[in-house]
Structure formats: structure tokens, C-alpha cells
Amino acid sequence: MATSVMACNPKQLPQIVCFEVIPANIMEGQSTQVKWEISPSKHTRNIALQGIKENLENIGNLSLPNITEKNAKNITLDVAFHSPMHKKLHHLQETRKINIDKPFFKGEEQVSVGESTHLEWKVNPEAKKIWMHELIEGKEVLIWEDLPAEANYKIKPTKNTKFELFVIQPNPQTAKDDTLVYKHDTNVEHGFFTGTRTLLAGEEGRIMWKVFPNLNDLIVEERENEYTRHVLKMNLPTKGFLNVKPTATTEYILVLVSKESQTRFKHKIKVVNAIFAGNNLIKQTQKGVLQWKTTQKAKKVTLSEQLADGTYKILKDNLPTEGRFELPKLNLGVYHYLLLVETKGETSEFSHSLIVTDKDETEAKIYASARKTKGFDEYVPQEEEKKDHHAHQSVEMSFEAEVMNEPIFSDKTIIYFDFEKNKIEEKYTQKLDEFVQYLQKHENAIIDIKGYSDMFGSTKGCQKVSEERALAVRDYLVSKGVEDYRLLYRGMGRSLPVHILENNKQQAQENRRVEVILMDNK
């Protein structure tokens, strides 16, 4: 907007009649033009485009060639004039913005055999020539020439392919043409086969797949050992899932039968009698928590702690098949815990370690990562570590970049709901978005979504609302671009409550929840 100036005879002062940038929205490397018109005035001293050109005429235009991210900026028209009233030099200014877009060349990075996909690009519309090469057996082969500056082409690759888009465009600054190259790789896959990795004995898991079409047959085989193997199901669709309930650790084999060959994918589900977890790292001022869930067939569950001499003392026995144990405040060090699960005919052991630290969060994460990888058995207190700084410096430095560049991802989150509601509150969406980002980086990862209700209402009503809550979370993740076949969801009704007796509103809300769990991190 023009700035107003008080003067004795405002009609004699210059005015900006017209000032525009055409076009204002351009592609990087493209040219644009600035046009202006200033009303005649004897008080005008200088007309300038700031930082570009001065001593301009009252009416004119100027071409701005080869705009890039480096030289793109807002264009300001400055009119310097003398104020008859104040006898000082004043400035009349207006600014126009240039919006610049980056050229791109993109497409799907992975497709299944036989599937069609698209290559899409948008480059400088002033380009003199655009063509595309495909790298076949190490040699560049021209596949398209005289291409438009913006297009979307359908392709059907049969194997891993590298594409290169060549663009020749003028560069007024060098008086020569620039040849730009944009690259995109498309990897052709037969598909994927994934599912539950760890399963409690007696519970139901799931296997899922997506493979290329036009098969003669698609078969799932089940194998518990090298001697026991059988066909679980035949004539399967190219995209789908199966619920399975293995009784022992089992390997599943997906067989793709085509006219030319057979392709096999393998996925193993480990069946265990318990899942034992808890805090891996806490500050000395905090209390740690251990959690477990065992098979319903467990006859006895015992929690023990390892002593300094390597023996174990029982912390608690005759535990329920699912629960949590809050640890007392601990001194600095590394603590080892053991969960013993007795079933008919066998006893299974499950271990978990906890580091108690006085380090800050960043140092603690680096140390924990180094310890996990290098297998350190003892915690080094802060004072002792300073004395032996050089011995640990290389380990800490080697893991610092990894920790900083790859934020620690929590593989579980819980979302709570209001009474009889299934709407996700905004405060939980940030955590769900972290799952979306993780799934985008890890294409084989899948999520298990379990909805729960409070203890109030009929069994049928509780089941219904728990399913609606799980579905709401699943729909949110799908809306963010996550494929639906990577999301397992189910309503658990009022089973497995956090609080069996709901003595207050807080306990009831803690039962009204959806647990979102990362199941496959391969």
C-alpha cells in the first residue's frame, strides 16, 4: 500500500498509478516482468526498483530473467520525492511478492509386478527441449522426446528402472543454455507378506499380503517344523489377510504361482507364553514400572530381581496373567528382572533390564543406544565417566548422530475418549501423526488398533462403542495416507479393563481407550 504524506499541495505529489509483477507465480528458472506507472510530478526526485535498478521513467517495464530460489525476492517500487511543506525527502513505496515453485520429477518408488503407475513432472515452461531416458541394463535409452513442461505419463515397468528427465532452458545471465537432469527410480517388487510377529499362546494373530496380479494361484502354507507343513488356504486374492491361531512358533509361506515361475515369501510368528516389558531408562528421581501379559494357560507367574551375586530374589509371586508392578526409587545402576511363567509341563523365563541414570535426556539416550549395541553390562556413573572420558567418547560420538537424526519412536500410544463418544480429541492427533511418519518410512510396518469401553452398559453396547473407537483411529490414519491393509483394528468391549472397579470418573475414562501398537518393525 502507498504511504500517505501530508503536504501543502497534495495534488502536486507523485502517486503510484500502477505497479504489478506478471506473472507473479512462476517456476524456478522462469522469467517475469515488472510494470509500473507513476503520476507526473515536479517533486519526483528518483524512481527505483530497490536493489535492481534506479533512475527509472514514470512509465515503464523491466524483465527479470532466470528467477531462482537464491535471487527470488519481493520487488519494491520506491518513489523518492521532495515535500514542499517539510522541505525533506520522502519515499512512497509499494511491494509485490514473487511466488516461486521448485521443478519436480516424481512417481511411485515401489510398484508390484504388472501394476501400472505414473511419472509426473513440472519444469520451466520456457525450456527449449525436454526428453526422457530409461536406464536399461546399464545403458541409457531414449524413451520419450519433445515432452511438455508439465505432464503425467502412465507406465507399466517390468523390472527395477531408473528414469532421467532432461531439460534444456535458456540462462540469460550466462547467455548460454542450461541442461538440467532430474532423476527418479522405480523399484518393481513382487509384493510383500507381513503380519503379527509375536503372539501370546492361545491368542489370534494375522498375516497380510499384497502381490502382483495376473497369477494362476496364490497359496498360504503353514509350517511348524521341517517335518510338519500343509496348505492353509488356496485361491487367495492378490490383496488380503488371514486370521491365524498357531499353537507353536510357526512359519507361513506365501506362494505366488504364475505361468513362468513360483515366488515364495516367508513370515514367522513367534508364539510365547508372556510379553514382559517396562521402562528401559529412568532418572534417579523417578519410579520404574514393569508390565506383563501372559497366556491364559499360565498356572503361576513370578517376578524376581537379580542380586549382585547373580542370584535372584522374588519380588512377588502368584501374580495375575496381566498386570503391572511399580518399582521403588532405585540408586544409579543397571537392574535386571526375571518373569517366570509356569504352564502345564514347562516353565518359561523372560528378562528385562532397566538403567537408572542421573544424566540429562540426550546423554542418557546416547548411552542407552551404545549399551544396547555394544553390550555394556555395567552402568558408568557420571563422575566415573568423566575420569574415563576417552574410553567412552568414541562410543558416544558414534551414536550421537543416530540418536539426533532418528528420534526415539514410542511403539505404543493410548487415546482416551469421553463417555459414549468415539471422536478423537485434537490433543492426540500429534502422536497419531508420528505413527503416520513412521509408517511412511517403514513400508512393512503394521499397526494393531484395539478399542475398549468402560464397565458401564450392556455387553453389546460396550462392544459396539469399542469398535467405533478403534475404527475412528483407523480412519484417521487412512485419511493421512496410510494403506488400510496395514492397519488391524478391533473392538475389545469391556475386556481387559485398566480398572476392574471404576470408583471415579478418572478410572472410567482410563478404561475408555484405544491402544495403538506397532506390531511389525522389520
Reported for the largest beta sheet, the result is: 5 strands, mixed
Determine Rg (CA atoms, Å). Answer: 33 Å
| N-to-C span | 57 Å
- Give the low-confidence spans: 1-8, 370-408
Instruction: Report strand order across the widest sheet.
Output: 10-16-15-12-13
Instruction: Give the tally of β-strands.
Output: 36
Helix-strand category: mainly beta
Indicate the mean pLDDT: 81
Helix percentage range: 10-25%
Count of DSSP helices?
A: 6
Could you tell me the strand content as a percent range? Answer: over 45%
Shape: extended
Can you describe what's shown?
It is a single chain. The protein has 522 residues and is mainly beta. It contains 6 helices and 36 strands. Strands 10-16-15-12-13 form a 5-stranded mixed β-sheet, with no helix packed on it. α1 crosses α3.
What is this entry, summarized?
By secondary structure, the protein is mostly beta strands. It has six helices and 36 strands. The strands form ten sheets. The protein has a five-stranded mixed sheet with strand order 10-16-15-12-13, with no helix packed on it. A five-stranded mixed sheet has the order 18-24-23-20-21, with no helix packed on it. Strands 26-32-31-28-29 form a five-stranded mixed sheet.
What structural keywords apply?
extended, disordered N terminus, mainly beta
Which helices and strands, and how do they pair?
Elements: E1 16-22, E2 25-27, E3 32-38, E4 44-49, E5 59-64, E6 75-83, E7 88-96, E8 99-101, E9 104-107, E10 110-112, E11 117-122, E12 129-136, E13 139-144, E14 150-155, E15 161-171, E16 176-189, E17 191-195, E18 198-200, E19 205-211, E20 217-223, E21 229-233, E22 239-244, E23 250-257, E24 262-272, E25 274-278, E26 281-283, E27 289-294, E28 300-306, E29 312-316, E30 322-326, E31 333-343, E32 346-357, H1 361-374, H2 382-387, H3 389-405, E33 412-416, H4 429-441, E34 447-451, H5 459-479, E35 487-491, H6 505-511, E36 513-518
Parallel strand pairs: 2-8, 10-16, 18-24, 26-32, 34-35
Antiparallel strand pairs: 1-3, 3-5, 4-6, 6-7, 9-11, 11-14, 12-13, 12-15, 15-16, 17-19, 19-22, 20-21, 20-23, 23-24, 25-27, 27-30, 28-29, 28-31, 31-32, 33-36, 34-36
Helix pairs in contact: 1-3
